[in-house]
């Protein structure tokens, strides 16, 4: 596996007999190493040869989606184990799915119809019971009033008796007005509006009574649980009746017949109860049968689904093939890696044998004029790092791949900003959990954020390991220093340590062997010391990575045999960058090694302003002034070196290439035509615009010169993010945990620990991780990759059943 450059690719043509075409494409899909080109771009999808088969597969996919909905409704998951000895052809599967769909559709319709009838009967029973209670109560009240009136009349048969009441009671029954009534159920949230509209529409000439149903009931129309009230509306006249019925329909109130005859009412309740029990039994039996059918379907669903996806992708691929002149063979063209030639040929031979074809498929290599696709063979560890690079742009065919170096540089630059070995251990344990359970999680659908974290688990675990390493160098464990590698080199001047923060401490032992001495933490000089250390370290790392980028541009130029880029791009860029910032890096290392007090800011500023002045106390080595003058002259020379020669040489080469093109020997006319076509396909035969080339080179030169300064300054984000992470960690530790500890109260201490944990996880382990990740991403995309990486290629997308399944999911 070579991650430095993409795999060598070749353009191939396969001539396939019709009788073995389907099996050949199937075997190539299993292999997953051939990218087909569409040879029918002029045809619409409906005009292609296998449009009917694709339509059949689409219809079967629709049925399978219907089956999946039924399985979800039943709370079942598709079985991952395939049934033994259950190989289906496409025609058999189509017939099977059609039968199952018809059966399930009929069962669902019958069940829905029965359930609706059951819900209607259930509501009817409630109406009979609740409205019957109202009539029973009304009749009891009327009987009591009649008895009271009779007693009152017998006891007081005098002239003082109410004549109107007596007249009312003795009125002829045939002249009394007969009231009609409507009963049913109305949703409780609409009951007040329902009553109000009834009153207004009839001008108060109705009497309405409502009774609350305690438990929600299933609505026959919607099939959902709804809170309802039983109502009874008394009206007089046909017009009032029509208004009441229309209002009931408008409010979705379900009306049911009702009788005020007590005997008939009891008989109706008995009949409804009997029908309910019968329907319940029928529905339960139907649901049991439906569940058994869905369960049997779930056991084979995954197999059917994969077969339909596979067949649909095969026919889509067959539609990209063209017919030969005889219309008996299909012609395919596409890209494949060179190493896969023998595997593809074996797959073609196997397809010929298995399909009993008399003629074998022909595999031939073609001369490619366009640029091949880019293909890197990655595994589960390297794929995430390659995706980081591909997100910026896919590498041009066989140019140097930054993904190889990103495996180390990306987590390391992240760790420089995130350096704390306590936080690193937390990040490591969380990612280790994902890695240990990757088999389980890889087969599950995770949320968006969890999916990203799981996909980059190997990136994050390397980030955490490097964070532990840089945290040990910074000597920070949740901002607390530890003497892990021995005792501090410094100690107090007296046992009371009163002068530690004013005068300072004295060195009593050898230098601390690894990382920052723990005694620096908490002192007055901690921040200036760490700022100086991290700032200089950021510049060193930045210059080193930018030099690596320029060196990779050299390897690109040598690989593509572009000597112009080596002489007039690589060399002046190396000279310019290292004359200024390479020299600054040398001064930083010399200052660390010698312990000099030289001011590097002063040296670099006056290197440009007054290069001939004496350096005085800022001189780090003999001859430094003359070296600075030489480096400054080299940097000034490097700018026109990048700008002027390359456009002139390209113009000269263009003139030489096209000189005498109008005249050629007759025997080489075809060759000249081919070379002309080749030049046109690569843009070489177009008119050479010197002004455009010069402006492009001018922009490239200015971009590199200014970018050398801005990119070096951009690496100072390593120092800034590291300082921010350290200070935030220190604030959470001192202002939350230590403050809660100082109260000597268990409740406050527990609250402080909880706040500290949430702040650490939420801010430092989530937000700071994301922030450092994005900054490391920017340093790779902009500061590192723009030195050599073109990223204008396109990915190799082979026809593979594994990729088809992932895309469908």
Q: Report the span from N to C terminus.
A: 29 Å
Sheet having the most strands: 5 strands, antiparallel
Q: What is the 3D shape?
A: flat
Structural class by SSE content: alpha+beta
CA-atom Rg in angstroms: 43 Å
User: Tally of extended strands?
Assistant: 13
Task: State the helical fraction.
Answer: 55-70%
* Beta content: 5-15%
How many helical elements? 24
Mean of the pLDDT scores? 85
Low-confidence stretches: 666-685
Task: Characterize the structure shown.
The chain has helices spanning 21-31, 51-74, 90-155, 163-169, 191-201, 238-250, 262-318, 341-354, 383-392, 403-418, 421-436, 438-442, 448-455, 457-474, 526-559, 563-594, 600-609, 624-643, 645-658, 669-681, 690-714, 717-741, 746-784, 801-808; strands spanning 9-17, 35-36, 180-187, 207-212, 217-218, 225-226, 228-235, 254-256, 322-323, 329-337, 362-366, 490-491, 506-507. The protein has 809 residues and is α+β, with helices and mostly antiparallel strands. The strands form four sheets. Strands 1, 2, 9, 10 and 11 form a five-stranded antiparallel sheet that branches. Strands 4-7-3-8 form a four-stranded antiparallel sheet, sandwiched between helices. A two-stranded antiparallel ribbon has the order 5-6. Strand 9 (322-323) and strand 10 form a beta hairpin. The relative contact order is 0.11.
Describe the structure in brief.
This protein has 809 residues and is an alpha+beta fold. The chain has helices at 21-31, 51-74, 90-155, 163-169, 191-201, 238-250, 262-318, 341-354, 383-392, 403-418, 421-436, 438-442, 448-455, 457-474, 526-559, 563-594, 600-609, 624-643, 645-658, 669-681, 690-714, 717-741, 746-784, 801-808, and strands at residues 9-17, 35-36, 180-187, 207-212, 217-218, 225-226, 228-235, 254-256, 322-323, 329-337, 362-366, 490-491, 506-507.
